[in-house]
Amino acid sequence: xxxxxxxxxxxxxxxxxxxxxxxxxxxxxxxxxxxxxxxxxxxxxxxxxxxxxxxxxxxxxxxxxxxxxxxxxxxxxxxxxxxxxxxxxxxxxxxxxxxxxxxxxxxxxxxxxxxxxxxxxxxxxxxxxxxxxxxxxxxxxxxxxxxxxxxxxxxxxxxxxxxxxxxxxxxxxxxxxxxxxxxxxxxxxxxxxxxxxxxxxxxxxxxxxxxxxxxxxxxxxxxxxxxxxxxxxxxxxxxxxxxxxxxxxxxxxxxxxxxxxxxxxxxxxxxxxxxxxxxxxxxxxxxxxxxxxxxxxxxxxxxxxxxxxxxxxxxxxxxxxxxxxxxxxxxxxxxxx
Amino acid sequence: xxxxxxxxxxxxxxxxxxxxxxxxxxxxxxxxxxxxxxxxxxxxxxxxxxxxxxxxxxxxxxxxxxxxxxxxxxxxxxxxxxxxxxxxxxxxxxxxxxxxxxxxxxxxxxxxxxxxxxxxxxxxxxxxxxxxxxxxxxxxxxxxxxxxxxxxxxxxxxxxxxxxxxxxxxxxxxxxxxxxxxxxxxxxxxxxxxxxxxxxxxxxxxxxxxxxxxxxxxxxxxxxxxxxxxxxxxxxxxxxxxxxxxxxxxxxxxxxxxxxxxxxxxxxxxxxxxxxxxxxxxxxxxxxxxxxxxxxxxxxxxxxxxxxxxxxxxxxxxxxxxxxxxxxxxxxxxxxxxxxxxxxxxxxxxxxxxxxxxxxxxxxxxxxxxxxxxxxxxxxxx
Lengths: 337, 382
Known about the structure:
The structure holds two protein chains of two kinds.
Chain A: H1 3-10, H2 12-27, H3 31-57, H4 65-80, H5 86-108, H6 113-133, H7 135-138, E1 144-145, E2 151-152, E3 155-156, H8 160-182, H9 185-195, H10 197-202, H11 207-233, E4 235-236, H12 243-256, H13 262-277, H14 285-299, H15 332-336
Chain B: H1 2-29, E1 39-46, H2 53-72, E2 80-87, H3 92-104, E3 108-113, H4 117-130, E4 134-136, E5 151-153, H5 158-172, E6 177-183, H6 186-201, E7 205-212, H7 220-229, E8 233-237, H8 240-252, E9 258-262, H9 268-274, E10 282-285, H10 294-307, H11 313-332, H12 336-344, E11 349-351, E12 354-356, E13 369-374, E14 377-380
Parallel strand pairs in B: 1-2, 1-3, 3-4, 4-5, 6-7, 6-8, 8-9, 9-10
Antiparallel strand pairs in B: 10-13, 11-12, 13-14
Helix pairs in contact in B: 2-11, 3-4, 5-6, 8-9, 11-12
């Protein structure tokens, strides 16, 4: 059997899943469901971005909505006020968020564990307060309205279904680049730092540099997600970038499982869909939402897809020798199971 | 053995929880059963859970009262009106999803909600694209009604209330030095800006403008700062939670001055929270429980009969939104896109929060009553 066929077979579940997503809006012509899927897509990007920090390098960052908000406001300001084309504003959203990631990361990444968590929490709070209070620039609590629909090289992303495909393309790009990244030398360095920072440093891994780089990359993706949100809902206000959003992202990782590519996707899909599925019980739905979280945490404390058995092996694009490396093979939790 | 037994119980519990979940999922996914054609459905998007749930429930009570009365009065073309209430938590993202849900449901004729301007405005493009009327009981953002041809505002523009208060303070009470405090959200910023603008136009010196973060509880710093400036009056744009705290802390700091309030007039909760510190504050009321206006009085009586408590402004606005929705539905002949145009032809509308004409402006202009607190009760100011 030629290698290409073998690789295709090995990747066939993913290819089938992607194909199902592509035909989904035609099979389910319900705009409401398409809309939920768009939001799931946005949260997949966010969760993947946070996963790089919390899952791969083991930094506890709990203020990710800050970068999300910066991305959303950057893209909105650039298209509404500066009249920049969408493609450029979209990219700038990521770059500006990345720059903030660098500015936050440089001084705070010397901190460990709970201290870093508090610093990122503080960052989220500051971003929210600035968005809320800088009336002349961000519109304060009035937010920014009239954000244009995306236009990509002449294609105006107009309907919900078109936006769905746009988000799908972004999500696939994000997941693909992330998968390549974490399976590269860079990704292995991150895992090494997570497992044992001292040992990693002794092996010649520049710990601080990798941490800052991971932080910037993560912030970049969160910024991109912000731009996706801003141009989809087309009206943004600080309400959407509170710490509650950061906690939702943490819950997604806790529920789906972190440190691999599948967990954040599953977590985002479940956590965004659950409140919608439970609409029938009206005022009790958030109660059920909490209950589901508790049950899953009881049954699978590492998350539904916790651990590294669930990595995406993109054989089709990975021409090197087969790697048997498993990221968390040395985790005590893995040994106990 | 014991541990196995416990384990089985846990598992059975989980199974029942899962099957319960599956049932709920199935129930919510199954297409709404076509309940014949005897009903007309109104979508209601409000915070039922979360931080704002309290306001959502007041508005919901008001809407339900209006709909009950309309149903007793023949419904819409002989069909009963049914409310489909969905929880948005006033989160813009969820409000968009609720909007999409309503729009996708052919049986829903129009929508009432959401509570915050942010949530209403995020959902507006969805309603506008579907040509469905979005009747927002409380949205006060100046741009809300301009977002499309289907956005119906029920609340009076905040500017009018603030200007009314500023003129009251400057012209009638002769206050020359005023400090302001406002909640830093979309509503508070505008309430404050309009007050300050009108006050300055009246020749008043505005000493300071202090923004407070929504949900804050300690205002000692703000109160002390203002006390040292010795103002003639203090204008506070805040709902009862913050307002009550500010009044109580001002009393403790011995800041004695005339307080003006926008945001909590007529609220019984304010009286409870602030106690005697609320005595003498001045507020402009759109809705006033002891108002002698017949529509307003009928609403108050019906509400008290049903819920055994006096309604507040939110309930009254919900009631008015319900009345407007019913009027629109009756004129629209079951056609979604005809609801908003029918509403905008409405003139001489009388609601619990006063009368106005949509033909004059799509932003209702309403009259205010001067009220104050005396002996622990809201009364007319004299």
